[in-house]
Specification:
Length: 266
């Protein structure tokens, strides 16, 4: 009989950092994708608020609501047995009162059954991170480029302020975050932060020296219009392959060759 795999936990990730084993994280927003990633033994599955752009076709992550995060988070968590499932706190949760932040994160944990949450921010959100951790909610701090602050940051730009990055990273660690996710920072800065922290770092557009890497799954699989950031490596071109299949189906229906006798009931 196949034994149920052990779930990846905060302790697993800490031990991976100590042993120099790289952590893998990818995004999912639905049941079949999450099931596929879990079977592929991806360590962490992120239900990112990138769903606003990737699934809903919006131009930023800002409009995504708490209910939408819970809707997608529940499907993803239900599909997994091994991966740690992390759900994003949407804008402006984390920027309002600490009570509101804890209540929102608790609602995500209760209704999705995920294992952790991720919140954008570092130094300025230190008290909120501490409150989440005190409430027993494992928390990842997302620093560097924070997409929910895209307008304040003047666009999706590389974040080069070393002091700010280190201050945010240290504040996150001291507040009890179990991991720091760094987006769009130069590799040497990401390396420095990774060396200075005892908790794992996961990078996106942050070079090769982080303890782990994350990408948006739809970008990696080529399931989009090809417009992807510089840091994405496309491992497949599923959009072209799917378009080919759909064109073939339309042609077969139009020619009357689908369905065949084998595909019909006798
Ligand atoms: O929302 C998201 O998918 C993210 C990743 C880009 C890290 O935060």
């Amino acid at each position: 009989m196949n034994e149920k795999p052990q779930r990846v936990t905060v302790k697993t990730l800490q031990s991976m950092k100590r042993k120099g084993q790289r952590i893998t994280m990818l995004t999912a927003y639905d049941y079949p994708t999450a099931q596929m990633l879990d079977e592929a033994k991806v360590d962490c599955i992120l239900v990112g608020d990138s769903l606003g752009m990737v699934v809903q076709g919006k131009t930023t992550t800002i409009p995504v609501t708490l209910d939408e995060m819970i809707y997608h988070g529940e499907m993803v968590a239900r599909a997994t047995v091994r991966a740690m499932v992390v759900v994003d706190l949407p804008f402006p949760v984390g920027q309002l009162s600490i009570t509101h932040t804890v209540e929102s994160a608790a609602s995500i944990m209760k209704r999705t059954q995920c294992q952790a949450v991720k919140m954008e921010g570092g130094h300025q959100q230190a008290a909120a991170i501490r409150a989440l951790v005190d409430a027993g909610i494992p928390t990842i701090a997302h620093i560097g480029l924070r997409p929910q602050s895209v307008h304040a940051l003047g666009g999706y730009r590389v974040q080069r302020d070393a002091d700010q990055l280190m201050t945010d990273a240290k504040a996150a660690e001291q507040s009890g975050a179990f991991c720091v996710l760094m987006e769009c920072v130069p590799p040497d800065l990401a390396k420095l932060v990774t060396e200075q922290l005892s908790i794992p770092t996961i990078g996106i557009g942050a070079g090769p020296h982080c303890d782990g890497q994350v990408l948006v799954t739809n970008d990696l699989l080529g399931w989009n219009n090809g417009d992807v950031p510089k840091f994405v490596r496309r491992y497949a071109d599923l959009r072209s392959e799917s378009a080919r299949a759909v064109n073939q189906y339309c042609e077969d229906v139009q020619k009357g060759t689908f369905p065949s006798a084998d595909e019909s009931f006798g």
